[in-house]
């Protein structure tokens, strides 16, 4: 995570980004239940640009830099695409030795119908179906995967205590909304897919 923060900070300076600002666009959703300690939300089908890693532990900065390349012109049209929120990271067990770690950026509305094809063969466009998600929001910094897992476990416990049905606990998403230059009031979330 330290490498990711350093890379982002250097890029911010080099490109003149003001990374402490709020994101211009957030993936749209509708809250269908606010239970206080968690929400149920519906995200309509949308396109995301993604990169996968298959390993025991993720090196998130590698995925981030691949995706950052895509939005800064490494696509078939050479477009620069605005950074959006959240950046999602999904962990899914593959076997006893490794997990699939997927990092994605939401593609802004201006490019949803026809996003440019990535020129990096490891980067791809994913069409996520309409999803119902159980979410838990928390603040602070998330520097290691185990911190995501701690919040995932807390959400799982709350959902089970509430008797929520149809929750897929085999995989989860971490969602980060803020740049590394934002120090206060950071927004992070963990998500489980709910079968509706």
Characterise the protein shown here.
This protein has 196 residues and is α+β, with helices and mostly antiparallel strands. The chain is built from 3 helices and 9 strands, in the order H-E-E-E-H-E-E-E-E-H-E-E. It has a 9-stranded antiparallel sheet with strand order 1-2-7-9-8-4-5-3-6, covered by helices on one side. A hairpin with a 5-residue loop joins strand 4 and strand 5. Helix 1 (2-15) packs parallel to helix 2. It is globular. 25% of the residues are buried. Residues 1-17 have low confidence and may be disordered.
Question: What would you report as the Rg, rounded to the nearest angstrom?
Answer: 16 Å
Seen as an oligomer or otherwise, the chain set is single chain
- How many H/I helices? 3
State the secondary-structure class: alpha+beta
Q: Output the strand order for the largest sheet.
A: 1-2-7-9-8-4-5-3-6
Mean pLDDT: 87
The separation of the N and C termini measures 34 Å
Helix content: 10-25%
Q: Could you give a short account of the major beta sheet?
A: 9 strands, antiparallel
Got a strand count?
A: 9
Order of helices and strands: HEEEHEEEEHEE
The percent range for strand residues is: 25-35%
The 3D shape can be described as globular
Unreliable segments of 5+ consecutive residues: 1-17
